[in-house]
Amino acid sequence: MKVHYGIENFIPLKRATVTSGTFDGVHYGHQQILAHLRAVAKEDQSETVLITFWPHPRFTIQPEEAKKSLKLLTNLDEKIERLQLEGIDHLIVIEFNAEFSQMTSMDFVRKILIEKINTTKLVIGYDHRFGRNREGGFEYLKTHQDQFGFEVEEITKQEIENAAVSSTAIRKALLEAGDVQLAGKYLCYNYTFEGTVVGGNKIGRKIGFPTANIQLQDQFKLLPKSGVYVVRIQVGDVWHNGMMNIGRRPTVTEGIQQTIEVNIFDFSSDIYDQKVKVEFVNHIRDEMKFDGVEALIEQLNADKKVALSMLSKA
Fold first, then answer.
1. Of the candidates 149, 186, 253, 241, the residue with the CA atom closest to the CA atom of residue 31
2. Are 132 and 60 in contact (CB under 8 A)?
3. 2: how many CB neighbours lie within 10 A of its CB?
4. Cβ count within 10 A of residue 222
5. What's the pTM?
6. Are 228 and 285 a contacting pair, CB within 8 Å?
7. pLDDT grade for 144, boundaries at 50, 70 and 90
8. Distance from C-alpha of 261 to C-alpha of 246, rounded to nearest angstrom
9. What distance in Å separates the CA atoms of residue 20 and residue 94, rounded to the nearest whole number?
10. Which of 32, 48, 147, 280 has its CA 20 to 30 A from that of 296?
């Protein structure tokens, strides 16, 4: 997959089958769109093109609200990594700035889809909108496709177990319930995040559960709700099993800022300042306040047994 940052220097193709959107998470619904995109391109003997936008449009259109409330399933690097697996020929990353947000749907079609890419077929999701104030959509495109000179196809809503799959549904599962298994089902892969191991106050080490304290790499990356999770953590090229707490540690340090701590099983190396990747396997329980350290240690031992059992079945 060739990654093009900006449309300015993109050389129009002889034939292009195109889709566009934010593709946050590159979930099951997105994967179905891309599978159809590849099938159409093969039949049409054209190259596949995916247009995506960065930053997420809401950070430009509603910046204050987005900074307060919007968390993303994938940052740009993660999105590119996931799309690499989908067999797309060209990924065009367009900067979604104030100027671009004012482009009309007609200008988007003429200046980008036609002039810059030479689109012969366009495949879009069932709820896809584009252009200033989200004025463009499937009906608009279908009505004008003869004028535009390319065919338009709409992919219907994709469901798993009678539930519509969307980035919003995945965010809700993670934020409201910590349901990383449902999120993983919708994503078709385990949800992950990356960060750097930083120094902590070593409370975990004192009670027999040393932890790697992780600082998120991206401030707008979504973390599931506070609680204890079964995880796998990649250190260097090696994956390890563990359990992670997201929260404020109410039993020992109530009131501090949220922390991310991973107890890596059978591991004792110094990994301060190293970048790591964490993959969610399952949710064990919500964060709780215990009647003292002894009760906390007893619960952590129980949590570890649950985690090992879940990992053996994963």
1. 186
2. no
3. 11
4. 21
5. 0.93
6. yes
7. confident
8. 7
9. 10
10. 280
Cα 88 to Cα 83: distance, rounded to the nearest angstrom: 7
Q: Which pairs with CB-CB distance under 8 Å and at least 24 residues apart come from 65-72?
A: 70/220, 71/171, 71/175, 71/220, 71/221, 71/222, 71/223, 72/24, 72/218, 72/220, 72/221, 72/222
> Tokens 């936008």 label which residue?
53
Backbone angles phi, psi at 158, to 5 degrees: -100, 135
Confidence of residue 233 (pLDDT cuts 50, 70, 90): very high
Contact call for residues 6 and 42 (beta carbons, < 8 A) = no
Beta bridge partners of 85: none
Q: Are 207 and 253 in contact (CB under 8 A)?
A: no
Domains of the chain: 2-164 (3.40.50.620), 191-313 (2.40.30.30)
- In angstroms, how far is CA 37 from the centroid of its own chain? 21
Q: Residue 252 — very low, low, confident or very high, per pLDDT cuts 50/70/90? A: low
